[in-house]
From TrEMBL:
Protein name from the UniProt record: Chloramphenicol phosphotransferase
InterPro entries: CPT, P-loop_NTPase
Domain of life from the UniProt record: Bacteria
Organism annotation: Devosia nitrariae
């Protein structure tokens, strides 16, 4: 029987450095990336921004799709793991929609029994703003301090993690080096187990 592959979910606001950690993990081995950017590239325009909806209830018309989209994404993470494949997903979980959707506990239940870590990816808001402004000069982003602040406040609720990394203090390689060894001695209960047991 094939041993299940490892699952890492990186949770943090845009420009926190999640994609760089994904690249650092992939440099260490065959980690498959199923994060928000990868998932949304397959999304039809009618459902965009897909699982990347910003906090604040920006698109209530798309919110009914989110339980199914997140459910399908997490089922895919679980399916890869059951095939013995290591998989990483960089996401921005929050529950600040027009009404609470309680997505994270449902997602956590879909990973039951699998080796899965939830990693909080943080950086000071000044660092986030600096990175966004650097990208804005390339024409990819506009910088809205209110939205950046909203992400900072929303994405780390409830803040239950197996590990938290600060990308202003650590390189992507150092973050990857901190994540991988946890699988050898995982916390009990894990962050996902605690979230799955919550009432939400």
């Amino acid at each position: 029987m094939t041993a299940p592959g490892r699952i890492v979910v990186l949770n943090g606001p845009p420009r926190a450095g999640k994609s760089s950690i994904v690249a650092a993990l992939q440099a260490r081995g065959p980690w498959i990336n199923l994060g928000v950017d990868v998932y949304n590239r397959a999304m039809p325009a009618a459902l965009m921004p897909g699982v990347g909806l910003r906090p604040g209830g920006e698109r209530p018309d798309l919110e009914p799709w989110l339980p199914r989209l997140y459910g399908a994404l997490y089922e895919s993470l679980a399916a890869h793991s059951r095939q013995g494949l290591d998989v990483v997903a960089d996401l921005g979980h929050h529950d600040f929609y027009s009404q609470p959707l309680h997505l994270l506990p449902d997602c956590a239940r879909r990973l039951a029994g699998l080796p899965a870590l939830l990693v909080g990816v943080t950086a000071p808001i000044e660092t986030i703003l600096e990175r966004r402004r650097a990208n804005a000069r390339g024409g990819f982003y506009t910088v809205d301090d209110t939205i950046v602040q909203r992400w900072q406040e929303a994405v780390h609720e409830p803040g239950i993690y197996d590990l938290t990394v600060d990308t202003a203090a650590m390189t992507p390689e150092q973050c990857a080096e901190a994540i991988v060894p946890i699988f050898a001695d995982p916390p009990e209960p894990s962050a996902f187990s605690r979230l799955a047991a919550s009432e939400a």
